[in-house]
Design goal:
The protein is mostly beta strands and 127 residues long. The chain contains no helices and 11 strands. Strands 2, 4, 5, 6, 9, 10 and 11 form a 7-stranded mixed beta sheet that branches. Strands 1-3-8-7 form a 4-stranded antiparallel beta sheet, with no helix packed on it. It is globular and about 40 Å long.
């Protein structure tokens, strides 16, 4: 049974930082590209960041470039999202997802193309 478990969310002041780990089990982690998405109340789920199977390629939404960093440790079956300089508009539920398909660019930004999802962790940024 595949499980993706996010943690590390919480309440933080604007300008602060959080690190979100996502631990994977029940799959061969190194064979999956990983993505981070977020969803705020009343809004659609949006791509935040993604990392290829090997970790050589990373992609970011324009809204988080320069502030967020995605990384992975294939030995620990874990992907991370380091979030710095947080803004109130970053407030959302954050979800990690796993994609088993080969992609020419290494990562897809389309939610429907991911095979497995975590349950999410809430990030709230106060002004």
């Amino acid at each position: 049974q595949v499980q993706l478990v996010e943690s590390g969310g919480g309440l933080v002041q604007a300008g602060g930082s959080l690190r979100l780990p996502c631990a994977a089990s029940g799959l061969t982690f190194r064979r999956y590209a990983m993505g981070w998405f977020r969803q705020a109340p009343g809004k659609e789920r949006e791509f935040v960041a993604g990392i290829s199977r090997s970790g050589d390629s990373t992609y970011y939404a324009d809204s988080v470039k320069g502030r967020f960093t995605v990384s992975r440790d294939n030995a620990k079956n874990t992907v991370y999202l380091q979030m710095n300089s947080l803004k109130p508009e970053d407030t959302a539920g954050y979800y990690c997802a796993a994609d088993k398909h080969f992609r020419l660019r290494g990562v897809t930004t389309t939610p429907n193309e991911y095979d497995y999802w975590g349950q999410g962790t809430q990030v709230t940024v106060s002004s």
